[in-house]
Amino acid sequence: MRIGLFIPCYIDAFFPEVGIATLELLERLGHDVEYPRDQTCCGQPMANSGFNAECIDTEALFVRNFSGFDYIVGPSGSCVHHIRDNFDAVEQTDEVKEVRARTFELVEFLHDIEKVEAFPWARFPHRVGLHNSCGTLRRLGHAKPSELHEPFFSKPMDLLSKVDGIEFASPARPDECCGFGGTFAVFEEVVSTKMGYDKVSDHARAGAEYIVSADSSCLMHQKGCAQRIGVPVKFIHIAQILNGALA
Fold first, then answer.
1. How high is the mean pLDDT of the chain?
2. Domain end position, chosen among 52, 86, 114
3. 106 and 10 both lie in a single domain
4. pLDDT tens digits, one per residue of 81-115
5. What per-residue confidence (pLDDT) applies to 135?
6. C-alpha distances in angstroms, 85 versus 67, 88, 137, 139, 164?
7. What is the dihedral of CA 184, 190, 191, 196, to 10 degrees?
8. Diameter of the chain by CA atoms?
9. Is the pLDDT at 124 greater than 80, yes or no?
10. What is the pLDDT of residue 147?
11. With 0-12 CB in 10 A as exposed, 13-18 as middle and 19+ as buried, what is 75?
């Protein structure tokens, strides 16, 4: 299976270890992974700020970079959500539609497409609190939103439960937004910060040593909030655990 590795710009700039873990994990699973070196931002920050038309060049570049792959996989729910659901500044040719349809976030790719049953190289003897970002929860279907009367499921938890030694903490309000929300954290700083304080405190009360998520942007926001109010929790992307970060 030929996979195009999509690494969002903020991961490239601030969390390269997440991109490396994603590459290594996909290769461990036997895939031919390529990283198009001309890739840049997918356009999400501009679109979220109301400048959708200005995304046309970044969207066109994304299509040129990733056309022809069996799958495009990225370790960011919010970016994949943008590509699949809001990637409409560029003309919707068959090629564009094909690229959008073949783009998957890492967790859903491993769970829904690969159906991975084991991570024998991974061990993580810690108690973790799972954070599902709003986009992955309600647009990518990572887990059951608490407001819906449906049977419980959680794709990240299902994958993580296959890692030796891991335990789960259960925060009181697991689906509550952490307050990041991209540009929301800039324009509504006070509200965003208070939401972040509440989120990390909830995980800490539940006994989490680590907060794990499929979105580094949410982890970045929560880490800053935790450091500011002295909450002693650590933060790690799910790709790093599944790749055997502490084995």
1. 94
2. 114
3. yes
4. 999 999 999 999 999 999 999 999 999 999 999 99
5. 87
6. 18, 8, 14, 9, 35
7. 90
8. 51
9. yes
10. 87
11. buried
- In the DSSP assignment, the letter for residue 109 is I
For residue 23, being part of any structural domain is answered with: yes
196 and 133 both lie in a single domain: yes
Instruction: Give the three-class secondary structure for 18.
Output: helix
The total of structural domains in the chain comes to 2
Claim: this prediction has a pTM higher than 0.85? yes
Q: Name the CA dihedral angle for 94, 100, 103, 108, rounded to a multiple of 10 degrees.
A: -120
d(CA 164, CA 123): 5
Question: In this structure, is the dihedral angle defined by the CA atoms of residues 166, 167, 169 and 174, taken in order, positive or negative?
Answer: positive
**Residue 69 counted as domain residue:** yes
Task: Report which listed range, 140-149, 181-190, 198-207, is most confident.
Answer: 198-207
Mean pLDDT value of segment 196-215: 97
Statement to judge: residues 110 and 133 lie in one domain? no
